[in-house]
Amino acid sequence: MSSVGNESAEIEVRNDGIYLILNNMHPTGKPSRQHVIGLVDAYGIKDVNVSAITDAFASSEPRVERKISSNTHIAQEPESAKVNIDKDGLAAELVFVPPVNGGKPILLDKLKGIIKDAGIKYGLDEAAVEKLHRSHEYMKPYIIARGLPPTQGTDGTLQFHVDLSKKKHTPKMLEDGKVDFRKLGLIELATQGQRLVSIIPETPGQDGINVYGATLPAKKVRPAPPLPRGKNTALSHDEKSLVASVSGQIIFDSKRINISPVLEIAKDVDNTTGDIEFNGSIIIRGAVLTGFSVSAPGNIEVYGVVEGAKITSDGDIFLYRGVQGQSKAEITAGGNINTKFAENASLVAGKNIIGDSIMHSSTMCGGSLELSGKRGLLVGGKTVASDKIIANTIGSPMATLTELEVGHNPERLNEFKSLSAELNNMKQEYTKLEKTIEVLDAQNKKGQLNDERKNLFLKAIQTRAFMRNKLMTLQEQVSIMMPIMQVQSGAIVAYTLIHSGVKVLIGNAVMYIRDDIKCSRLINVDGKVTIAAL
Fold first, then answer.
1. Where are the beta strands (DSSP E) in 166-256?
2. How far apart are CA 516 and CA 394, in angstroms?
3. SS3 assignment, position 99
4. Residues 6+ apart with CB under 8 A from 452
5. Which of 69, 100, 127 is the last residue of a domain?
6. Is 38 inside a domain boundary?
7. Binning pLDDT at 50, 70 and 90, where does residue 307 land?
8. Shortest CA distance to 91 belongs to which of 173, 12, 208?
9. Which of 121, 146, 171 is the last residue of a domain?
10. Alpha-carbon distance 353 to 332, whole Å?
């Protein structure tokens, strides 16, 4: 009787046949069916009773013996080995097959020959093979070679530097916890030269190699999509970014980014739009409601009525339906203001103001005010123009106080008035300080000052020196502007009538209109307001 195998599974040859012995209590655990079948094949056992093998595996006995063949002969086979390579060719396993019936162990050269015949040319661990030749378990796979898997690259992409998502009407939370419904942030803006989109280039992968020595190509990567170049955009110098060629609103149509220098609001400016702040020009098809603001460096056009709102432009402002200001409206333009009418509003223009009628408003312009429409009415409030005030009718039959001032640039006039007021105030303060110093000086000479009042005396002297320098500066500025303020140019023209109750200031000349004046032109002649023919 002879047996082969290991301690957990043995094949034993007896006089009446061949037996399979399973040791279910072995520390290595119950042997696998694959291992047993491998033993049977390796030993060349004929006429195998498969049912007996199945029955042996089904038994839970500590030691199971089943006759699996009536054959009493096992051929002698030397120890052998086989190589298994995975389907990707990235790993090779070496499996040792036990000898049969006392067969000889495998030689190292034979083992290397088997490995060579398997076609392994890359990643072979020869030291591991030699170590395994000296010590190994049967039917156990050992990794002896590994290939190099390819490194996958990344596709090129576009990186967007602006938010192109659909804006939500999300009010802004203020520091005090209140919600500002006027700052909704519905418009995505770009400034000229701003980077909009950049190309993130593709990163190529690295090819791998399998244990056969064959190249495993990395997956091909795709370049970034083309930059979505639309209207008013340009490529950067390196052509890797898209930049705005003008300032304006960003419009993305899912294919291209366009920059519109004109923002068009098709409805009223109200709670649904919030305040409008744009870096180009603005067209508003509806009204601008009370409490809201519109500002832009370009022109602003409003087709609806402007209520008690604030509109600011560095360019021109066009108000096609006029202003019903409710004593809250502030209309400020760096250029011209064109309005159908204005009532109870503040209008400030760097150049001209043109319209049909202005009532009970504060109006200032660096050029001329011209009301030449159907009514051509200017009544109430105060109007200041650098050049001319022209209207059909000025004032009202009720002698409504209407102040007119021409001949000086409003900004320069305000500056002169401010400087003059500051100069007068400082003169008064300086006079008071001089008196204080005189008193303290007299007391100091008599030794009547304690330490605290001595410090006060020193500080007063230092302050006087500072105020003296400031006074000299202000007097110089006022002196420079004085001749300009004495210029007597400018005119007020009424094609129909100037009512009583109108105050006229032309340059340095003042006139109060006591009686109505028809079809007249008022000018400054030798420091007096003079009525001249049209």
1. 172-173, 179-180, 189-190, 195-200, 208-209, 215-216, 233-235, 241-244, 248-252
2. 10
3. coil
4. none
5. 69
6. yes
7. very high
8. 208
9. 146
10. 11
Q: Given 3-state DSSP classes, what are the helix, strand and coil percentages for the chain, each rounded to the nearest 5?
A: 20, 40, 40
- Verify that 62 and 99 share a domain, yes or no: no
**Residues 423, 480 within the same domain:** yes
Whether residues 41 and 106 share a domain: the answer is no
Phi-psi region of 517 (alpha: psi -120 to 50; beta: other; left: phi over 0): beta
- The DSSP H or E segment spanning 93 is strand 91-97
Specify if 198 maps to a domain: no
Q: Which of 123-137, 408-422, 479-493, 494-508 has the lowest mean pLDDT?
A: 479-493
For 448, the domain range is 412-485
CA distance linking residue 90 with residue 396, whole number of Å: 100
User: What's the structural domain count of the chain?
Assistant: 3
Same domain, 58 and 87: no
Same domain, 61 and 84: no
Angstrom distance (rounded) from CA 423 to CA 435: 19
- The neighbour count for residue 92, using CB atoms within 10 Å, is 27
Q: Are 57 and 94 members of one domain?
A: no
Q: Please check whether residue 121 lies inside any domain of the structure.
A: yes
Residues 14/21, Cβ–Cβ less than 8 Å = no
Confirm whether pTM is higher than 0.85. Answer: no
Q: What is the DSSP letter of 32?
A: P
Owner of token pair 């006089």: 15
What digits encode the pLDDT tens for the residues 51-102?
Answer: 999 999 888 888 899 999 988 777 677 889 999 999 999 999 999 998 876 7
User: Does 2 have pLDDT greater than 50?
Assistant: no
Q: Buried (b) or exposed (e) across 110-126, using 16+ Cβ within 10 A? A: ebeeebeebebebbbee
pLDDT, tens digit, for every residue of 421-448? 988 998 998 898 888 888 888 888 888 8
Q: pLDDT value at position 179?
A: 44
Would residue 344 count as lying in a domain? no
Most confidently predicted of 297-311, 481-495, 506-520: 297-311
Please tell me whether residues 416 and 469 are part of one structural domain: yes
Strands 502-506 and 402-406: parallel
CA distances, 291 to each of 3, 7, 326 (Å) = 103, 94, 11
What percent of the chain clears pLDDT 70, i.e. is strictly above it? 92
Comparing 7 with 260, the larger pLDDT belongs to: 260
Least confident range from 4-8, 191-195, 296-300, 374-378: namely: 4-8
Q: What mean pLDDT comes out for the span 104-133?
A: 93
